[in-house]
Design goal:
The chain is of the alpha+beta class. The protein has helices at 116-128, 134-148, 162-168, 173-186; strands at 4-17, 21-28, 38-47, 51-52, 56-57, 63-72, 75-87, 150-151, 170-171, 191-198, 208-216, 220-225, 230-231, 236-242, 251-256, 261-271. The longest helix has 15 residues, at 134-148. The relative contact order is 0.23.
């Protein structure tokens, strides 16, 4: 019998400005990815006082839309509300449609580029890999990254590279994902950064989460979470992906006449009983 969950998600992103701004244009990717592990019951994304463009599908399968607001006096708010059913697929991203070649994810960025220390770390893991196949190596990489980094909230910044979190042995989910991606690319496995939601027993610190997907021929993409040392299951909701945390940002914006900005995010992911 399949493991399933019914989840209710609320996600509010509020930008508060010290002075009025002329306009704000944002690209928003806060939509659940469509694949065999999810059924969307309802999902609504709204932006206060905004003109909303049509939703488009990008080459990597991400769903996005552009919003535009003119003359913001004090704040702008992006609201997401939805209910979904999730199914445990053992991490396999089956039924997901995209046109991008998986080999583009063999490319490193400034956040995932390995140094000699990371390369040596990976070589030692390869030696431990008795089965000699890429899938078993990926699981071993996940385990070793999980053991190497201690989860420590506030220990890194949004632009902290894998080399720094590897050296400090501390980080949050994005750092686990960056190091895992860096390590996977070292052994020739295409790897990408994934943003989504996680049901974590009312621990709202983990309601928004990051993990990685690795590509294997004849299987496709498989999602690994090095933070929790597992493959994704029915507790995970995939939203969007990219080369790293910056390219996978679920909201990007350009403000004209911008001033000092404060960001406040509130997210809840609750398991609900089936109606």
């Amino acid at each position: 019998m399949e493991d399933t969950m019914f989840l209710k998600i609320n996600h509010r992103t509020r930008y508060t400005y010290k002075n009025p701004i002329h306009s704000l244009t944002q690209c928003i990717k806060l939509f659940p990815s469509k694949h065999k592990g999810i059924k969307i019951i309802n999902w609504n994304v709204t932006v206060k006082d905004a003109v909303m463009g049509a939703k488009v599908i990008e080459s990597n399968g991400d769903q996005s839309l552009v919003s535009h607001i003119s003359k913001i006096k004090k704040s702008s708010i992006v609201n997401v509300k939805g209910e979904i059913k999730t199914i445990d697929t053992g991490g396999i991203l089956e039924g997901y449609k995209e046109s991008a070649n998986p080999e583009i994810y063999l490319r490193n960025t400034k956040l995932t580029r390995p140094n000699n220390e990371i390369k040596e770390f990976v070589k030692m893991i390869e030696i431990k890999n008795k089965n000699k196949n890429k899938l078993s190596l990926a699981h071993l990489l996940k385990e070793e990254v999980h053991q190497h980094i201690e989860y420590s909230k506030g220990s890194t910044e949004i632009d902290t590279p894998a080399t720094q979190s590897f050296k400090n042995k501390k980080g949050v989910c994005q750092d686990f994902a960056h190091l895992f991606i860096s390590s996977s690319i070292c052994v020739g496995i295409p790897a990408r950064y994934v943003v989504g939601y996680l049901e974590s027993s009312n621990n709202n610190d983990e309601a928004t989460h990051a993990w990685a997907e690795l590509y294997f021929k004849n299987v496709g993409w498989i999602a690994f979470d090095p933070t929790h040392n597992c493959c994704t299951n029915e507790k995970y909701v995939r939203i969007c992906s990219g080369f790293d945390s910056l390219s996978a940002a679920p909201i990007r914006g350009v403000a004209i006449g911008s001033s000092e900005e404060k960001l406040n995010i509130k997210v809840s992911v609750e398991q609900v009983l089936q109606q």
